[in-house]
Amino acid sequence: MSKSIVIVVPHSLGVEAAKKRISERIEVLRGAYIDKLAYSEMNWTGNRADLRVVAFGQTITAQIDVEPEQLRIEAQLPWLLGTLAGRIQGVLTHNARDSLRIGHTPPKA
Predict the structure, then answer these.
(1) CATH code assigned at 80
(2) Which among 33, 75, 77, 99 could disulfide-bond with 81, CB atoms 3.0 to 4.6 Å apart, if both were Cys?
(3) What are phi and psi of 108, to 5 degrees?
(4) Over 60: is that where the pLDDT of 13 sits?
(5) Mean of the pLDDT values across residues 15-24?
(6) 100 lies in a domain?
(7) 55: domain range?
(8) Residue 34: which residues within 8 A CB-CB, separation 6 or more?
C-alpha cells in the first residue's frame, strides 16, 4: 500500500519566480543523486509539475502546484518507502523552503 505525504510551503515570490527556483533545485538534486537514480522526469503543465523518480527499484510520483503565495507538494511513496515518510517529508520541506527563501542563491550544479 502506498503512502501520500503533503507539504505546503508559503512564499512571496510570485508564481514564475517560484517555478524557476523549484526547477533549478530539482536539477541540482538530480545531479547530486544521479548515481542512485535509475530514471527521473519532470513535466510542467501550467503551474503544476508532475514528477516521477525511480531509484532502488522503487517509483515515487509527485505533483508540485505553484500558487501565488504557496507551494503544495504531494508525493506518493511506495509501501517500502512509506516507513521513511517522516524523513522524506522533512527533506522535501527543507529543500522547498530553502529554494523559496528570499535572498537564496542556488548552488552550482
Answers:
(1) 3.30.530.20
(2) 77
(3) -75, 135
(4) yes
(5) 91
(6) no
(7) 3-94
(8) none
